[in-house]
Structures are given as structure tokens and as C-alpha cells.
Amino acid sequence: MNQERDILFEELVGRHIDLVFYMAKSWCHCSSWAEDLAQDSFLKAYANFDQFTPGTNFKAWILKILRNVYLDAKKK
Fold it and tell me: For the whole model, what pTM was predicted?
């Protein structure tokens, strides 16, 4: 990824990190699991950030990733 995209990703994460953790904790009711879910979600988002279109709704995109990470973790 290029430096511009890395900076954009970092800015977007900074704006939404609390929300992602809050949502994860509200679903699993466990702080340590919520931290893991949030971290896994941001790692997955970073790995796939080339699929994100700047200027679109990052919050919806990252929360969808979080939801999928949570559902996958629940299955295991």
C-alpha cells in the first residue's frame, strides 16, 4: 500500500476505533474478546483496504467487517 493510503487508513481508524470496540463489547460482553475482535477487524480492513473507495462510508465498511469477524469467531 502506498503512504497516502496508509495515512488515510490511520486517520479513519482513529475516528472509529472506539465505536468498533464498543460494538464488539456490546455483542460479546467481554473486554478481552472485544479487543481481539476489534484488532482482527482492523487487520482484515488493512489487508483489504485497496477495496475501500475513499470518500465512501468507512464506518459502515469497518462495522460490516467487525460483524463478519464476530460471526466467524462465534462459529469456532
Answer: 0.93
